[in-house]
Amino acid sequence: MKLEADGDLHIELVDANDNKPGIVGAEIPPGQIWCEFRKLALSWTTQKFPLSFGSSKSLTVTGNHVVTVTGKAFYDVDHAPKDRSNERGKPFKPGYAVWEVHPVMGMTR
Description:
Elements: E1 2-3, E2 9-13, E3 24-28, H1 35-42, E4 57-58, E5 68-75, E6 99-108
Parallel strand pairs: 3-6
Antiparallel strand pairs: 1-2, 1-4, 2-3, 5-6
């Protein structure tokens, strides 16, 4: 999980049964409409509150959390992981895309 300098909260999701490779990102923007989703996600971390930061900050997630996330599918090359684990190969190189749920419109445990 990463809190971006602009306030966006990024969560890397994997298959709960570990049957499917890859990562799907979920982005929860700042703002009151997303407050409950942000509270739930941040409750999984070791972060102390109030939260203050000047730049992007990685957050440590404790335990495994099985959730269902719904929202808009968004194709975003800017949030691809550094290890290129979601790379699609040619013809998409060097810019390759990552699918995100952006914004998160529902999240349940």
